[in-house]
Amino acid sequence: MTAPQRLTDRKRQAIIQAAINEFRDNGFEITSMDKIAATAGVSKRTVYNHFPSKEELFAEILNQLWIRVTAEQETAYRPDLPLRDQLRVLLTAKLQMLGDDNFLDLARVAIAATIHSPERAQDMVARMGEREEGLTVWIRAAQADGRLKAVAPEFAAQQIHGLLKSFAFWPQISMGQPSLSAEEQNTVADSALDMFLGYYQL
């Protein structure tokens, strides 16, 4: 990669980080491209070269959020390993991602902006629905192997996500509670595993 390309990439990341900070601190409606440029230490023209509008810049932030959500450790189903051991790897990766401060900042921005614009929320949900995540794929494979009860894999995956997020996402987003410690993450993961496998494992 040439030096100019690296500089361009650095400026793009600086713009995105500045936008996250501004959206988080001031909300979507109040944040201006001028302020984002000033915070990023670049010209307004540079911001517009990378992102033609505030909406497109926000869409890129949502895209990065979704990449982080779906970049959780992909674990292919293994018929030769205990279900609990395999599922624990997936849940641990999810809890680590949910505890990441940058991820929580992005989530706050996205939630605040979508509350004020149902159209934006619909677009976000549609974008997320385009890509099936690892846990759903894993559940489907375990069902096909006759080791989990037959239920819609998406439904079962959403259930286990709910068990995690009630401790490791919503209290932090809505009440400003600190991220879970490693010990607390283990407790939440073990409890979710007990409940999920206690009901679904054959």
What would you note in describing this structure?
The chain has 202 residues and is mainly α. The chain has two domains: 1-52, Arc Repressor Mutant, subunit A; 65-200, Tetracycline Repressor, domain 2, CATH 1.10.357.10. 75% of the residues lie in helices and 0% in strands. It has helices at residues 3-26, 33-40, 44-50, 54-70, 83-98, 101-116, 118-129, 134-144, 153-168, 170-175, 182-200. The mean pLDDT is 87.
Write the layout of secondary structure elements.
Blueprint: H1 3-26, H2 33-40, H3 44-50, H4 54-70, H5 83-98, H6 101-116, H7 118-129, H8 134-144, H9 153-168, H10 170-175, H11 182-200
Helix pairs in contact: 1-2, 1-6, 2-3, 4-6, 5-11, 6-7, 8-9, 9-11
Pfam families: TetR_C_7, TetR_N
InterPro entries: DNA-bd_HTH_TetR-type_CS, Homeodomain-like_sf, HTH-type_TetR-like_transc_reg, HTH_TetR, Tet_transcr_reg_TetR-rel_C_sf, TetR_C_Proteobacteria
DNA-binding region: 32-51
